[in-house]
Amino acid sequence: MKDDDRGCPKCGHEETEMDEISTTGSGLSRIFDIQNRRFVVVSCTNCGYSELYRSQSSGEIVDLFLG
Hints:
This protein has about 70 residues and is α+β, with helices and mostly antiparallel strands. The chain has one domain (about 15-65). The protein has two helices and three strands, in the order βαββα. It has a three-stranded antiparallel β-sheet, with helices on one face. The radius of gyration is 15 Å and the shape is elongated. It starts with 15 loop residues before the first strand and ends with a helix.
């Protein structure tokens, strides 16, 4: 790992791509296929390593991913 601990946790690259996914929970939301849980996916554009975060401000999420 690099000394400054910034960038992708796997390869150190600092360019990311973001996307969103929605999933069902358990119980009634699963029975009725209600997708009530949202996540932001941050992926490294170099190696493809991805992390899921509960939906919040995109700026905060990239900061979490890159360190």
